[in-house]
Write a structure and sequence with these properties.
heterodimer, A: alpha+beta, 3 domains, 6-stranded antiparallel beta sheet, 5-stranded mixed beta sheet, 11 helices, elongated, B: mainly alpha, 9 helices, 61% helix
Chain lengths: 342, 251
């Protein structure tokens, strides 16, 4: 844990004077490198993070005193890395959990823009700070389809994932970029992380937090990906109306993304959906729409069943037929949705 | 025809081998590293060559993409001004990486082969850069005894010499923690040790990070440097305090 630094005014003045006088006292040669310049292989390994801790420390110290090696390091690491180093937000604040805890107020204020609201539709490609929305699904399509098409109420996953709320985002952490898929099903979060571009093939560490009021944090756990950035975080039971925070740590680089879980998950059930719809349409209109939708599906099913499937495909994907039905229903539901919106 | 052959005689289907199986087929020893201008040949058995070719086929496209991105990144200094054509620089790096790959890759357990190949590509690129900038030999190293001599030559008394050595050790220890500490130490020295203006410090910083990576305008870039220095000076002062360097008269 970092030692707290709260010097008095007098102490601070004294320390500053010591630092300034010390730095001014150096003569030519005082700040020359004392270790041999690393060869290209070592410097390249340093940049790609392939060195052991001792050698890495030696090179850290060397580049501080050797301008030409620093120049080569900067060339290999790239301008973005130097710009990141110069950024104050770069300071690793989650090298341990206590530091994250202590640093939370600053992070909360700095990175509010990185909070993705699961109950909101942003549009694909929307940039929220370091986060880009890669995919999102209207809240209710799949849940309704699952209930509609599955006779077994527990069969929602098989009937088409059954996500009630779903967001897929892309985020850059250091040199690597990742895709994070978060879905909410009946109050449970499923989080999948996959590496998109992982030139730095090291595990990404994930620290999960929950905050209700944005002030107090409670830790949910930690996880890590494989070297290529892939993992599926076990289902986390989470309260509604909270923000789930993922701290992504890649070596000495960090990124933070939050997911706001709405207090009232819209369309969490057919009853919720109908309650929502009744606010904008009369019961008669709803009944007509549902009838038309059911007729449409009924008319489509025999046609779909006549489509030839190869034996092996049917064997490999037993739910294929039902998925086709689901796809067809999406079209119908879209029509329903747009007509209701009108 | 295949049925007439024993399993040992049957040609290996390299495409279906796992990476680990391919590693086992690689040549045992790496070719001794020689300067770039020396002709280096390596005898490879057909199986070794095929294993190398298969690994190259699997990992090179992505590595090539990463390397190209590094070279073409806005403000990248990887391609030095001595080579005005980035495209030519790229092709040279790609070609030489291929040569080096077939010359040096040897049998061992690679944890991450992609990372190994990327490191190799960066290594080759840096060698080419050094060749172009004429810095292949590297700067002269000043050893401890030279430093002592230099300190003595400055006319300082033994106490001052000792204090300067101690301070230097302290900064080295601080810089060893991370590249960020190395950079903050450099900037602190330029600002506080040499009283350099922010404009001049920015100019020096931008040698390694040109373009608008640091900020869109000169004012924004200077502000970033100042904020960085202010923030990291606190860390340095804490470092001082923890090591009880509070006596202004120490040096």
């Amino acid at each position: 844990m970092a030692h707290e630094f709260n010097p008095s005014k007098g102490e601070l003045k004294q320390l500053l004077r010591a630092l300034n006088r010390g730095l001014k006292s150096f003569k030519k040669g005082d700040l020359a490198p004392r270790t041999p310049c690393p060869n290209s292989w070592t410097l390249a390994s340093y940049v790609t993070g392939e060195l052991d801790d001792k050698t890495r420390r030696t090179i850290n110290a060397h580049i501080a005193f050797c301008d030409s090696c620093f120049e080569e390091y900067a060339a290999l690491a790239g301008p973005e890395k130097i710009a990141d180093i110069l950024s104050i937000g770069f300071t690793p604040w989650a090298s341990n959990l206590q530091e994250l805890w202590d640093g939370w107020p600053r992070i909360r204020d700095d990175k509010e823009k990185c909070i993705v609201d699961l109950g909101r539709t942003y549009g694909i490609g929307t940039q929220l700070g370091p986060v880009q929305i890669a995919a999102e699904r209207p809240a209710f399509w799949k849940s309704i389809l699952s209930n509609f098409l599955s006779s077994d109420p527990d069969d929602t996953f098989r009937a088409g994932s059954g996500e009630l709320l779903f967001k897929q985002i892309e985020i850059q952490v250091g040199e690597n970029s990742y895709r994070i898929e978060l879905s909410l099903l009946r109050g449970e979060i499923v989080c999948k992380i996959s590496g998109l571009h992982t030139p730095l093939q090291v595990p990404l560490r994930i620290v999960l937090w929950e905050t209700k009021d944005g002030k107090e944090l409670s830790a949910l756990g930690t996880d890590h990906t494989d070297d290529f950035g892939n993992t599926e975080i076990p289902v986390v039971v989470i309260n509604r109306g909270v923000t789930l925070i993922l701290t992504l740590v890649l070596r000495d680089r960090e990124q933070l993304v939050g997911f706001r879980i709405p207090a009232n998950v819209p369309y969490a059930s057919i009853a919720d959906l109908l309650a929502e719809i009744t606010q904008s349409a009369s019961p008669k209109q709803i009944e007509d729409h549902l009838k038309r939708m059911k007729d449409g599906i009924d008319a489509l099913l025999p046609f779909l069943r006549r489509q030839p499937h190869s034996e092996s495909e049917t064997h490999v994907i037993p739910t294929r037929e039902r998925n086709k039905e689901a796809q067809a229903s999406v079209v119908l539901f879209s029509c329903l949705g747009s007509s209701l919106a009108m | 025809m295949e049925s007439d052959q024993t399993p040992e005689q049957r040609p290996l289907d390299f495409e279906n081998l796992t990476d680990e199986e391919l590693f086992e087929l690689l040549p045992v020893k790496e070719k001794k590293r020689l300067p770039r201008n020396k002709i280096q040949t390596r005898y490879l058995k057909p199986e070794e060559r095929s294993a190398l070719e298969e690994l190259w086929r699997r990992y090179w496209p992505k590595t090539k993409e990463y390397l190209r991105a590094r070279i073409y990144a806005s403000g990248s200094t990887l391609c030095p001004p001595e080579e005005p054509d980035k495209g030519h620089f790229c092709v040279t790096c790609f070609d030489e990486t291929e040569l080096v790959f077939f010359r040096r890759t040897c049998r061992k357990q690679y944890e991450k082969f992609g990372a190994f190949l990327f490191t190799m590509a960066l290594n080759v690129t840096l060698d080419i850069r050094k060749h172009l900038t004429g810095t292949e030999e590297g700067p002269t190293i000043i050893h401890d005894e030279d430093v002592t001599k230099d300190l003595e030559d400055t006319g300082r008394d033994p106490h001052q010499t000792f204090a300067a050595r101690q301070l230097r050790d302290l900064f080295e220890e601080y810089a060893a923690i991370s590249p960020r500490n190395a950079l903050s130490m450099k900037i602190a020295y330029l600002k506080r040790g040499q009283d350099m203006t922010w404009e001049k410090i920015l100019e020096l910083t931008e040698k390694n990070c040109p373009g608008k990576a640091i900020g869109p305008t000169i004012g924004a870039r200077i502000k970033k440097l100042r904020d960085f220095e202010k923030h990291d000076t606190k860390k340095l002062l804490q470092w001082f305090q923890e090591r009880k360097i509070t006596d202004a008269g120490i040096v």
